[in-house]
Amino acid sequence: MAKNSRLRWWEIVFLILGSPIWLSVLISVFAVVFSVYVSLWSAIISLWAVFVSLLASAFGLTAASFILLVLGRMFSGAAAFAVGLVCAGLSIFMFFVCKAATKGIIFLTKKVCLALKNCLIKKEVA
After folding, report:
1. CA distance readout (Å), 93 to 81, 88, 97, 98
2. Any idea what the Cα angle at residue 26 is, between residues 20 and 29, rounded to 5°?
3. Closest to 104 in 3D by CA, of 33, 40, 36
């Protein structure tokens, strides 16, 4: 037996009269969800920026250490080389952190999109 999907006249009147309240709440909920989503992706972009800066620092400090060694500044060259190696090690660690965080956010995005799709598109019972 099919359910009567037509709205009664008083339900339509209540929907129209209540629209300033429920429509503004609905818009604010979507704005909050969107801002949380953008904040998560901006955190991921920031993590990748830290990875790139660590990698660039590793290359720059290694090159600077050789220049300092040629100029005769042994302690400064050795310190720059050591810090360059530390930045290289941290960049390797940071790459795996960024990769895992990006996979997690993509997984979360897929789950949220599927949940929204299931809420909006319902299969009819045969």
Report:
1. 19, 9, 7, 9
2. 135
3. 40
Q: 122 phi and psi, to 5 degrees?
A: -110, 140
Q: Which residues contact 58 (CB under 8 A, 6 or more apart)?
A: 84, 85, 87, 88, 91
Q: For residue 120, how many C-alpha atoms fall within 13 Å in the half-sphere facing its CB? A: 6
For residue range 14-44, list pLDDT tens digits in order: 778 878 888 888 899 889 989 998 999 999 9
Cα–Cα distance, 59 to 73 (Å, whole number):
19
Share of the chain above pLDDT 90, in %: 60
Q: Which of the given ranges, 8-12, 26-30, 41-45, 119-123, has the highest pLDDT on average?
A: 41-45
Residue 80 amino acid letter: A
The residue assigned the tokens 């704005």 is 31
